[in-house]
Specification:
- The chain is mainly alpha-helical.
- It has a single domain, classed as MetI-like (MetI-like fold), CATH 1.10.3720.10.
- Helices cover about 75% and strands about 0% of the residues.
- The chain contains 12 helices and no strands.
- The two termini are about 40 Å apart.
Length: about 270
């Protein structure tokens, strides 16, 4: 088999795999325009009735507000903490740097259900249940490993000569960081912010343990609605969320173009 034939076979395989992965999304998209009172495929007719119904359910908008607040605040906290951790790992003279880095990445190894139960018990003892604060703190713990990994990868690419030039010109540590370091990692910082927002906004397992009516997030509200109703309203909501996430992923891809974060992290591990 010639190299060109192998290449064409690879393209066909990739195309078939992508179609297989995207097939459920296609059914959700079509079902969101279903005119029937229940989910059926193919739909007997097309209609926007479930999008209209979506905008009339006030519980969704309260949950959406909670999810946005939690995602924005937890992402901001994770970015502040992650920047400090990344600077300590890259610039600090730690003897056991790999061990410390593994410690901050440990939440990725713990099942989210376990984190949810632990935060639930801690929130009750601290009189923070139910509240947005407990969910924000739990999401911050979950986001910290992702943010730290991205910022570490970007700090490893910083040109130290610019920082040294700033210090030679009389800049103190904060001015050097703000004027010489931040501009070089600004793209990675924005990527980490968007990625943290997506992970927090989409989180379900932890929020399920911490949610009540006043602090319920959108994924939990969608789950409860599906248990109560069987109409395609959730397909309409899912279609809108898929569109939002696609836009955010495209933004991340464009902003991180030319930066192989995985290879940087692997070199750092060695």
């Amino acid at each position: 088999m010639s190299p060109r034939a192998w290449r064409r076979t690879g393209y066909v395989y990739i195309a078939a795999f992508l179609c297989f992965m995207a097939a459920p999304l296609f059914f959700i998209l079509v079902n969101s325009f279903n005119d029937a009172a229940y989910s059926v495929f193919p739909p007997p007719a097309l209609s926007l009735r479930w999008y209209h119904n979506l905008f009339t359910v006030t519980e969704f908008w309260l949950a959406l507000r909670n999810s946005l607040i939690i995602a924005l605040v937890s992402a901001a906290l994770a970015l502040m903490l992650g920047m400090g951790v990344a600077l300590a790992l890259v610039r600090g003279g730690w003897a056991q740097r790999e061990v410390i880095q593994s410690l901050f990445l440990s939440p990725l190894l713990v099942p989210r259900v376990v984190i949810g139960v632990a935060v639930f018990m801690a929130a009750i003892r601290a009189a923070l249940y139910p509240s947005l604060t407990s969910t924000i703190l739990a999401h911050t713990v979950l986001l910290l490993p992702y943010v730290t990994s991205i910022l570490v990868a970007n700090l490893l690419q910083v040109r130290r000569v610019q920082e040294e030039a700033a210090m030679d010109l009389g800049a103190n540590a904060w001015q050097t960081f703000r004027l010489a370091t931040v501009p070089q990692i600004s793209k990675g910082f924005l990527v980490a912010a968007i990625f943290a927002f997506i992970v927090s906004f989409d989180e379900f397992d932890i929020a399920l343990f911490l949610s009540r009516s006043e602090n319920m997030t959108l994924p939990v509200r969608m789950y409860l609605y599906m248990q109560e109703q069987e109409n395609p309203t959730m397909a309409a909501m899912s279609t809108l969320l898929i569109g939002l996430m696609v836009l955010l992923v495209i933004t991340i891809t464009r902003m991180s173009r030319g930066t192989n974060l995985l290879s940087i992290l692997m070199r750092r591990g060695h």
